[in-house]
Amino acid sequence: MTWAEMQPLLTQAVWDTLYMVGLATLVSVAGGLPLGILLVLTDRGGLLRNAFVNKVVGAVVNVGRSLPFLILMVALIPFTRLVVGTTIGAEAAVVPLAVGAVPFFARLVETAVREVDHGLVEAVQAMGGSTWTVVRKALLPESLPSVVSGLTTTVVTLVGYSAMAGAIGAGGLGDLAIRYGYQRFETGLMLVTVAVLIVLVTLIQLAGDLAARSLSHRGRSESAAPRLRLLRAPARAEAEPAKAS
Amino acid sequence: MITTTGLKKVYRSRGREVVALDGVDLHVREGEVYGVVGRSGAGKSTLIRCVNLLERPTSGTVTVAGQDLTALAGGSRRAGAELRAARSRIGMVFQHFNLLSSRTVQDNVELPLEILGLSGAARSRKALDLLDLVGLADRARAYPAQLSGGQKQRVGIARALAGDPKVLLSDEATSALDPETTRSVLQLLRDLNRQLGLTVLLITHEMEVVKQICDSAALMKGGRIVESGTVPELLAAPGGELARELFPVGGVPSGPGGTVIDVTFHDDSTGQPVISQLARTYNIDVSILGAAVETVGGRRVGRMRVELPGTFEENVVPVGFLREQGLQVEVAPAGAAQAATPEENSK
Ligand SMILES: Nc1ncnc2c1ncn2[C@@H]1O[C@H](COP(=O)(O)OP(=O)(O)O)[C@@H](O)[C@H]1O
Ligand SMILES: [Mg+2]
């Protein structure tokens, strides 16, 4: 297979992957963020202590987290048909992707929000802030760097899931690799697909790390954002506090 | 300004009960700086957190500026609009500052103003004024991580003042700071108290804080207030534990047969050679067992423990002479000489 033959296939596959992952990410944020916060607020010692809600939401999240994605995908086929009207193609893949990623992201949000110093919650309460104010002015902004890191992990995971979704005809890079690389022994295309996936994941991780770092104002030593894993950038570490001042 | 009556707080966790407050009656007058001291675990933080209902008292009432906050809170666990409005008029500063790391100094000070619903321009003007008041106008755009501990607490104080409170609560505001910074932050609180007529209730485990800025003080032990009063009153009661801690004079009698008295003297009477006059006038041997001069609440106060030969009855006249000189004279409480050893006084 020549490059000229590969290129349109690849372009289409990249777009399909980005579409699936992008849409599923939006749904994960819309669903996972409130759920993660709810898990913290309803927990013992939380502002909206409610053992029942906490147990139920926690259980739902755990079930979603523990099912292997492949099984989730198959199990959700009737639901997907109900929502999108079809079970094939990128649109259809978004449903299991989002259902898988929402609980995943919710747990990461929960962890991030739990790390916010309780003293900040008290400070806002002492100023006369309501629970909603506490969430909006303290919990969310203070956990934002960690939430962004969690989102990066979620998106990277979604890229992996989307490749798996390719196995049931979702399109995208995974689909390409299976149809050409596995079924037709097009090793060249297979390798290029793998390379594109690596580049995609690297770019996502890089962008996420940079975003988390630029959002963190905790000072050099106790930065909540993870260090850049892929690029060593000591110059940047020194430049940051200067920018912030 | 702040009154609590019969305040009780019982924590229940896993079947165990901790009585953190065991019937606290506190009365803080308008415009004074009131210090509550006590060891760790005495219930000080619980008390101050009950004052703005961050902690719901198990029973008892809290009144701030004539408003019964316990009534506002009602039975619900969540703070209703009325209680939140009342809280916005009570400033609070914390030991660990509790500034939002995601916001600049100015934005931290603006936070309470956002909650009060002020417009952007008004917020910014007010925040800058407050930062000016605490001497940090030039750091408005910095992030808390870029400030020293003392600066952070100044921001915390500016933030606490944003809602124009009549009352400021301070829970160990200087305990995370070094002695010099502590002094300057305390001085700031004192200045604000004087300039703005702010009533300050502060919690501390350091006697130095009481010495430096308090008009009144209370000692807490095991969830109760065991001693309280204005600082001069407390000092005038040498048997009191607070007085002894505020003002440690040690000294062990040289032997049996003498009378040990504690002599307390204030501003005007310091520096007079009363002891040598006493010795000369009555021709007695006065031994000085211990003495200290300190500045308490801006006033110079001295205390001396002296031993006079003979029983108390034999010393009625010399004691009368000292009292005539305007000194407070108390017979040292039995056992005080032992209790007031240096190691006891160090904490
Ligand atoms: N949230 C809580 N749950 C259970 N016990 C508590 C809680 N807060 C405080 N206590 C207990 O109440 C007592 C008083 O604590 P605290 O008011 O913090 O004392 P202080 O501030 O004087 O050191 C302590 O025995 C402490 O263990
Ligand atoms: Mg405490």
List the helices and strands and how they pair.
The complex is a heterodimer of chains A (245) and B (347).
Chain A: H1 3-42, H2 51-66, H3 69-75, H4 77-84, H5 90-114, H6 118-126, H7 131-165, H8 172-182, H9 187-215, H10 234-244
Helix pairs in contact in A: 1-2, 1-5, 1-7, 1-8, 2-5, 4-5, 5-7, 6-7, 7-8, 7-9, 8-9
Chain B: E1 2-13, E2 16-28, E3 33-37, H1 44-51, E4 59-64, E5 67-68, H2 69-73, H3 81-88, E6 90-93, H4 105-116, H5 120-133, H6 149-160, E7 167-171, H7 179-196, E8 199-204, H8 207-213, E9 216-221, E10 224-230, H9 231-235, H10 241-246, E11 258-266, H11 274-282, E12 287-296, E13 299-309, H12 316-324, E14 328-331, H13 336-339, H14 342-345
Parallel strand pairs in B: 3-8, 3-9, 6-7, 7-8
Antiparallel strand pairs in B: 1-2, 1-4, 4-5, 9-10, 11-13, 11-14, 12-13
The structure holds adenosine-5'-diphosphate and magnesium ion (MG).
Question: What does this protein structure show overall?
Answer:
The complex is a heterodimer of chains A (245) and B (347). Chain A has 245 residues and is mostly helical. Chain A has ten helices and no strands. In chain A, 78% of the residues lie in helices and 0% in strands. In chain A, α5 (90-114) crosses α7. The longest helix of chain A is centred in the first third of the chain and has 40 residues, at 3-42. Mean pLDDT of chain A is 87; it is low at 220-245. Chain B has 347 residues and is an alpha/beta fold. In chain B, 35% of the residues lie in helices and 29% in strands. In chain B, α7 links the parallel β7 (167-171) and β8. Chain B starts with a strand and ends with a helix. Classes of the chains: A mainly alpha (245), B alpha/beta (347). At the A-B interface, α6 and α7 of A face α3 and α4 of B. Adenosine-5'-diphosphate binds next to β1, β2 and α1 of chain B.
